[in-house]
Design goal:
This protein has 165 residues and is an all-alpha fold. 58% of the residues lie in helices and 0% in strands.
Length: 165
């Protein structure tokens, strides 16, 4: 599900770490008694876990909905997500009823969205900079264009259509 998707290697490796629950989120830092912020930097409400950061955080849910609306991939809207048991099954089910080029493009888009959310998380922690959902969506759109020009042909199946932006 990760290694055969078109995405930059660093993004695929990051996704693999996420699915192994090996990201340095606050919950894992707490286990080692390392300093951390405790709260999710995106919503400042809950303990930062990988599942919360990418699936449950209201900010992330807003980004997922915006991305789903933009690329007409309704399985990205969190209201369509069933009960989430673990991250690998969530990623597997994220594609929904899509098949072929759309499914491959949706997996690339999911990795891109997760990578961008992680970048926003890091900007908030290390640079004390905040972007609204609309700016994060703009960043995802720009990165999607760059990925397509670099060879993500299946991603083009999702986003190469006339959309009023």
């Amino acid at each position: 599900l990760v290694w055969k998707v078109w995405a930059p290697s660093k993004c695929k490796f990051f996704m693999w770490l996420l699915l192994q629950n090996r990201l340095w989120t606050a919950d894992r830092l707490l286990l080692r008694e390392w300093p951390n912020c405790y709260f999710c930097p995106l919503c400042v409400r809950n303990l930062e876990t990988a599942q919360h950061l990418f699936l449950e955080c209201p900010f992330s849910c807003s980004v997922w909905k915006s991305v789903g609306d933009w690329c007409h991939c309704h399985s990205f809207d969190t209201v369509n997500w069933t009960t989430i048991e673990d991250l690998p099954s969530w990623f597997h089910n994220l594609i929904g009823a899509l098949s072929g080029a759309h499914a491959k493009g949706a997996r690339s888009m999911a990795i891109l969205t997760i990578w961008t959310l992680w970048g926003e998380r890091n900007r908030r922690i290390f640079d004390d900079q905040l972007k609204p959902t609309s700016r994060v969506l703009d960043e995802i759109k720009e990165a999607a264009r760059m990925w397509m020009s670099a060879g993500a042909k299946h991603l083009a199946a999702l986003v190469d259509h006339p959309i009023s932006e």
